[in-house]
Design brief:
Layout (H helix, E strand, L loop, with lengths): L2 H7 L7 E7 L6 H9 L7 E7 L6 H5 L5 E4 L6 H11 L4 E5 L3 E3 L4 H5 L7 E5 L2 E2 L2 H4 L4 H7 L12 E2 L7 E5 H6 L13 H11 L3 E4 L4 E3 L8 H23 L8 H10 L5 H26 L3 H27 L5
Parallel strand pairs: 1-2, 1-4, 2-3, 6-10, 7-11
Antiparallel strand pairs: 4-9, 5-11, 6-9, 8-10
Helix pairs in contact: 7-12, 10-13, 11-12, 11-13, 12-13
């Protein structure tokens, strides 16, 4: 019996699942996450392991109200290492990683995703949405900076992904361990999921997205203007720099390579060339500003958001190249 046949022999009809929830100061959202998991209609066993990354709020008090296993990190080690620590404690052959602010809105989420975890599929996930009702409760800056994420539309088909978003993934545990888990030596809190996706794909495995969306609430420690501007976004940009060095992986039309090129154009002696750089940067800043204004319908967005987006632009480029040079996501 080969490894895949041995795995499949333990799978049906309902494989047991170890759900891993890494958390750091997630008290405002983790209760809703746990409620959504406990409401799942699933005939196999589900164990829930909450990995507390040395929280300083009342996260543990919230979690202790639920029938879960709590794993304590002795220090704040980051998301990637927290997940790996949780995997070592997982009892079952299927592991599901759910972030502290991601709610399963479909009570048959596991039932819908698990059947696809077979053959050359190493990971299954589903669309992540920011619904209007959650967005409506945000503060001014969260609304302005997350306006692009709001919506209820998603691909209603099973599709193969280039990479997983990482917030709600189900893995075969044997394959996850075969690849050494998340690269926690390189990535601390961002882009570990994309890195794993790329390693799996290079080995011939697939990542599938199943049309059973979840809601992203955005945890309290990841919100607030200063947090988003000076911590959250730079963390992501730093991780993207590492990914670009390792895999030459970049995003869409407003990725950090194009952003860097636009900055370089500003220092070219020819006016026409400089104007191209100005036009690109302006399109990024004022395009996102107008999008936020349309959704929020608050005139002050037109005044307050552009300088913030400019600072965000500069910081993102800086941390992207920091990650590229150091080959580490450490912020």
């Amino acid at each position: 019996m080969n490894k895949d046949e041995d795995f499949r022999s333990t799978m049906y009809p309902y494989p047991y699942i170890s759900v891993l929830i890494p958390t750091y100061n997630g008290s405002k959202t983790i209760g809703k996450v746990l409620d959504s998991i406990l409401l799942q209609e699933y005939d196999g066993n589900i164990e829930i392991i909450v990995i507390d990354d040395h929280s300083t709020d009342n996260t543990l008090e919230v979690v202790k109200q639920y029938p879960v296993t709590i794993s304590h990190n002795k220090a704040n080690v980051g998301l990637a290492r927290s997940v790996n620590n949780g995997v070592t404690e997982a009892k079952y052959d299927v592991i599901c990683i759910i972030h502290e602010d991601v709610v399963l809105t479909d009570n048959e989420w596991f039932k819908k995703l698990i059947p696809y975890l077979k053959d050359d599929v190493a990971c299954v996930t589903s669309p992540v949405l920011l619904p209007e009702e959650v967005y409506a409760d945000f503060g001014f800056w969260e609304k302005a900076l997350f306006s692009w994420e709001v919506g209820s539309e998603y691909n209603n088909s099973v599709i193969t992904l280039d990479y997983s978003d990482g917030k709600n993934d189900i893995f075969r545990k044997d394959i996850y361990l075969e690849f050494g888990g998340f690269d926690s030596d390189t990535y601390r809190v961002a882009c570990e999921d994309v890195d794993m996706s790329k390693r799996l794909q290079r080995a011939g495995y697939k990542i599938l997205s199943i049309p059973a969306p979840v809601y992203h609430l955005h945890s309290s420690h990841a919100t607030g203007l200063s947090t988003i501007l000076f911590r959250k976004n730079p963390q992501l940009s730093e991780g993207q720099g590492v990914l670009f060095r390792k895999y030459r992986f970049i995003g869409g039309w407003n990725n950090q390579i194009y952003k860097t090129f636009a900055v370089i154009l500003l220092f070219v002696s020819f006016l026409d060339v400089r104007l191209i750089g100005v036009a690109y940067i302006a399109a990024i800043i004022f395009g996102s500003t107008y999008s936020a204004f349309k959704r929020m319908n608050e005139p002050k967005v037109l005044v307050l958001l552009p300088p913030v987006k400019l600072i965000d632009y500069i910081l993102n480029v800086w941390y992207f190249w920091k990650g590229f040079i150091t080959e580490k996501q450490r912020k």
